[in-house]
Amino acid sequence: MASVNKVIIVGNLGRDPEIRYMPSGDAIANIAVATSYKSKDRNTGEQKELTEWHRISFFGRLAEIVGQYLKKGSSVYVEGRLQTRKYTDKDGIERYATDIIAENMQMLGGRQGMGGGDSYGGGDDMGYDAAPSRPAPRQAPPAPAARPQPKPAPNFSDMDDDIPF
Fold first, then answer.
1. Distance (Å, rounded) from C-alpha 126 to C-alpha 104?
2. Residue 152 DSSP one-character state
3. Which in 103, 105, 117, 164 has the greatest CB count within 10 A?
4. Residues 29 and 13: beta-carbon distance below 8 Å
5. How far is Cα 64 from Cα 72, in angstroms, rounded to an integer?
6. In whole angstroms, how far apart are CA 77 and each of 16, 129, 148?
7. How many degrees, rounded to 5, is the angle at CA 128 between CA 119 and CA 117?
8. Residue 100 CB partners (closer than 8 Å, separation 6+)
9. pLDDT tens-digit profile, the chain (165 residues)
């Protein structure tokens, strides 16, 4: 049976990204993203806003981009997968934490402090993938298609009136 482990988060960074480097030189970036949910209390009718925090980890080139361009308050779109890890806290108690491992990221909003513009660069889709991609080979634009000749209107007088239904 097939399964799917996919997460999409759109929210704002709660703090500046934390960047570390592995011994191999690969970058790791961790961010905390806040998402909000608005609901109406059934008893009081009062509007409530609930904020949820998500830990997101980036690796490789994607982590370097996060460290370079994102900061506290930045709006971001992230696609990834859930991963649960087990660890022992300082009191010796085993705990579990579920993080999002980012596979794709898109910066939302304008280029604050970078000379204007509507969104960050990065290709036609304006997003960044975790895996490096090769540029697609340039193709010549398609030649304009010849317009098909319109079909003549059917002549209903030629039709046989012996319809079997």
1. 11
2. P
3. 105
4. no
5. 16
6. 16, 12, 44
7. 10
8. 7, 9, 54, 55, 56, 57, 78, 80, 81, 82, 83
9. 899 999 999 999 999 999 999 999 999 999 999 999 999 888 888 999 999 999 999 999 999 999 999 999 999 999 999 999 999 999 999 999 999 999 999 999 866 544 333 333 333 444 556 555 444 455 555 555 555 665 655 565 555 556 555
- Rounded distance between C-alpha atoms, residue 74 and residue 153, angstroms: 60
* Cβ-contact 93, 137 below 8 angstroms: no
Which token pair is 141? Answer: 């634009």
Both structure tokens of 62: 């994607």
Structure token digits, residue 163: 């319809």
| Side-chain-side CA neighbours of residue 119 (13 Å) | 16
CA 122-80-116 angle, to 5 degrees, is 30
By C-alpha distance, which of 126, 129, 123 is closest to 108?
126
Which of 100, 63, 62 is closest to 79 using CA atoms? 100
